[in-house]
């Protein structure tokens, strides 16, 4: 009798399922780890981009002369794989005269044009991990709109893989630096804000204010850079990229995709910008403070 009871007891313990509270705790710990790791990754990108632009370590010229390694090549080296990756342009883009800039800005802007060589592949990798955010929403770990999250992540992935990765002109343009700097600040703020909430802590008021105010500056810089990089990645036809080559039938599938991106970027920015303005009014205008965006 005792043996049977023991057997039933052991069997019962063996079939015990993880309680909802335990699952929630594990999910919360995972999300904390994800947000902290993502914030640190974007901080890495920001710091090394600024180091390159200011040439604090004196390596800007060396990075520029060695030429950029595309993200697909970088991944290939990391994985030691012989698989074929996305093509990379072999010819370097000639530096254009920036006579219209004040003298003290000439050197920093010139270094901005070579930032890809310092952090370009890392940006592609860090941004690619953002696909997990779509999974977080789909699995119910995060309360957010799945279509909105998917569109935001997809647009970034298109920028790093379908535009910058494919275009030597985009990789060698200062707009790449301004884009990733805007992205980095935005993501560091966002992930820091989410981490406080996941830890059950009230975010500092200054962080709340920055979370719902920085977009006034960061969105135009980031989205403007994104649009410009997409535009200059179209097949060249002087004086306007894309138009004459499109008329002559020189566009491929990816060119049409980038052309569509050029057309929809401004309306998309308007929708996102007005949405954030509404969120700001709710949070900073005396409304209920939102923990999720």
From TrEMBL:
Catalyzes the third of the four reactions of the long-chain fatty acids elongation cycle. This endoplasmic reticulum-bound enzymatic process, allows the addition of two carbons to the chain of long- and very long-chain fatty acids/VLCFAs per cycle. This enzyme catalyzes the dehydration of the 3-hydroxyacyl-CoA intermediate into trans-2,3-enoyl-CoA, within each cycle of fatty acid elongation. Thereby, it participates to the production of VLCFAs of different chain lengths that are involved in multiple biological processes as precursors of membrane lipids and lipid mediators. It catalyses: a very-long-chain (3R)-3-hydroxyacyl-CoA = a very-long-chain (2E)-enoyl-CoA + H2O. One of its GO terms (cellular component) is endoplasmic reticulum membrane. Coiled coil: none annotated. Pathway: Lipid metabolism; fatty acid biosynthesis. Residues 1-13 have a biased composition (Low complexity). The keyword Transmembrane helix applies. Its EC number is 4.2.1.134. This is Very-long-chain (3R)-3-hydroxyacyl-CoA dehydratase. One of its GO terms (molecular function) is very-long-chain (3R)-3-hydroxyacyl-CoA dehydratase activity. It is found in: Endoplasmic reticulum membrane; Membrane. Residues 1-20 are annotated as: Disordered. Keywords: Endoplasmic reticulum, Fatty acid biosynthesis, Fatty acid metabolism, Lipid biosynthesis, Lipid metabolism, Lyase, Membrane, Transmembrane, Transmembrane helix. Pfam families: PTPLA (PF04387). Belongs to the very long-chain fatty acids dehydratase HACD family. It is an enzyme of class 4 (lyase). One of its GO terms (biological process) is sphingolipid biosynthetic process. It comes from Schizophyllum commune (strain H4-8 / FGSC 9210) (Split gill fungus). It is a multi-pass membrane protein. The chain crosses the membrane at residues 32-51, 214-234, 256-278.
């Amino acid at each position: 009798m005792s043996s049977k009871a023991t057997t039933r007891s052991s069997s019962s313990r063996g079939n015990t399922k993880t309680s909802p509270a335990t699952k929630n705790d594990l999910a919360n710990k995972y999300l904390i780890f994800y947000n902290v790791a993502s914030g640190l990754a974007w901080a890495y990108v920001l710091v090394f981009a600024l180091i390159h632009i200011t040439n604090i370590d004196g390596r800007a010229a060396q990075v520029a002369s060695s030429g950029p390694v595309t993200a697909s090549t970088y991944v290939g080296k990391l994985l030691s794989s012989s698989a074929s990756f996305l093509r990379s342009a072999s010819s370097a883009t000639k530096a254009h005269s920036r006579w219209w800039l004040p003298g003290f800005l000439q050197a920093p802007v010139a270094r901005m044009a070579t930032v890809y060589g310092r952090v370009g592949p890392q940006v592609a990798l860090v941004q690619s991990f953002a696909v997990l955010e779509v999974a977080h929403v789909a699995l119910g770990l995060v309360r957010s709109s799945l279509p909105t999250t998917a569109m935001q992540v997809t647009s970034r992935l298109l920028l790093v893989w379908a535009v910058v990765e494919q275009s030597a002109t985009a990789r060698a343009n200062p707009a790449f630096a301004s884009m990733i700097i805007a992205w980095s600040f935005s993501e560091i703020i966002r992930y820091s804000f989410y981490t406080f909430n996941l830890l059950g802590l009230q975010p500092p008021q200054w962080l709340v204010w920055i979370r719902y105010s920085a977009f006034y500056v960061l969105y135009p810089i980031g989205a403007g850079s994104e649009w410009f990089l997409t535009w200059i990645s179209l097949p060249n036809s002087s004086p306007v990229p894309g138009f004459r080559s499109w008329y002559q039938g020189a566009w491929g599938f990816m060119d049409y995709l980038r052309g569509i991106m050029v057309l929809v970027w401004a309306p998309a920015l308007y929708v996102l910008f007005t949405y954030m303005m509404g969120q700001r009014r709710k949070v900073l205008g005396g409304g209920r403070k939102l923990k999720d965006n």
